[in-house]
UniProtKB/TrEMBL annotation:
Keyword Ribosomal protein: no
CDD domains cross-referenced by the UniProt entry: DNA_BRE_C
The organism's place on the tree of life at top rank: Archaea
Domain (Tyr recombinase) ranges: 10-196
Keyword vocabulary terms for this entry: DNA recombination
Protein name, UniProt field: Tyrosine-type recombinase/integrase
Alphabetical GO biological process terms: DNA recombination
InterPro entries xref list: DNA_brk_join_enz, Integrase-like_cat_sf, Integrase_catalytic
Length: 198
């Protein structure tokens, strides 16, 4: 079930990997571009405003790290103009991107998601409303586009315990304090794993 914190004026939600799967699938039923947008936020940690930037031109295989990286121009958390970074992409998303690009006959410079930030936000809201209607779980109606990035960051920082410097680099945070909001309480599974053997 979607974890939720409604103690402040802004409701925060965290989705499990399985819930992100469902959101991607639901959004994808309205078009593959929408599914790709969900993957870029929920699997790669992009801000909604960054989703319309990358194209295949920015995607590269790093032989040193044996990972997919792609260039993103996004928010500079220290202020000022945009900041360029290399974001990480799971192999499953890279496979989808390659298939999608081939099927759509996208050129190297064609953006994967050719939509405005408000459109991508609307896609999230439409998909979460469908899931809420299907499941009867109204928590889904509180999920925002930023909650996909929040879920991605929390999963890797808290559940997978990826070191903070790596997360800052691929997530586009300039200082430790910017990552603090993503350090939510661990899930019951993580608590069980951490406390096993006691």
């Amino acid at each position: 079930m979607v974890r939720i914190d409604d103690s402040n004026t802004v409701v925060k939600c965290w989705l499990s990997p399985e819930e992100i799967d469902r959101l991607e699938e639901t959004a994808g039923s309205e078009g593959w571009e929408r599914e790709i947008a969900m993957q870029l936020m929920g699997r790669c940690g992009l801000r909604v405003s960054e989703v319309s930037y990358p194209s295949t031109e920015e995607l590269r295989w790093s032989k040193n790290g044996e990972i997919w990286l792609f260039e993103v121009q996004g928010k500079n958390t220290k202020g000022g103009g945009q900041k360029t970074r290399d974001a990480w992409m799971p192999e499953s998303v890279a496979d989808d991107i390659h298939k999608y690009s081939r099927e759509r006959s996208l050129s190297e410079s064609d953006r994967w998601v050719d939509a405005s930030t408000p459109s991508v936000r609307r896609w999230v809201k439409e998909a979460t409303q469908i899931i809420a209607d299907e499941t009867g779980n109204n928590r889904w109606t509180s999920v925002s586009s930023h909650d996909l990035r929040r879920s991605w960051a929390t999963y890797y920082l808290v559940e997978r315990q990826v070191d903070i410097r790596t997360m800052m680099a691929i997530g586009g945070w300039s200082d430790y304090s910017a990552t603090e909001p993503y350090l939510a309480e661990p899930t019951e599974r993580r608590i069980g794993e951490a406390m096993a053997g006691e």
